[in-house]
Amino acid sequence: MSTPRTNNNDSPLAAPFSGFKSGDLLLAGGKGANLGELSNTGFAVPPGFIITTAAYDLLLQNNGVQTRLHDMLSALDFENRRLRGPTGNVLERHR
Q1: Which residues does 34 contact at the CB level (< 8 Å), separation at least 6?
Q2: At CA 78, angle to CA 77 and CA 80, rounded to 5?
Q3: Where are the alpha helices (DSSP H) in the chain?
């Protein structure tokens, strides 16, 4: 297997299940960490890999999504329970 690409923090962007344990929750997510733990303890887990939260973060940063989300959420009036305005309307549609 080739070495997975990493981001600037040296976290893998993707790795096989066997590369994770239950303690890797923040990097692999709940399902990924649990599949890794099961794989490492000998349970019959089909072959597979995990795309890490580091990869997701990198995607958001490189495509400007993180900045757009920040701008939208910063514009929210949290005192307004109905979330009125353009940002609130977008969020209401995605509930």
Answers
A1: 22
A2: 75
A3: 25-40, 53-62, 65-74, 86-93
Q: Show the tokens assigned to 19.
A: 């590369």
**Residues 21, 46 contacting (CB under 8 angstroms):** no
pTM higher than the cut 0.70 = no
Residue 14 backbone phi and psi in degrees, to 5 = -155, 150
pLDDT given for residue 2 in this prediction: 39
Asked whether the beta carbons of 6 and 12 are under 8 A apart, the reply is: yes
Q: Where are the domains of the chain?
A: 1-63, 64-95
Amino acid at the residue 66: Q
pLDDT of 6 > 60? The answer is no
* CATH 3.40.50.880 applies to domain 1-63: no
* Tokens 């940063």 sit on residue: 61
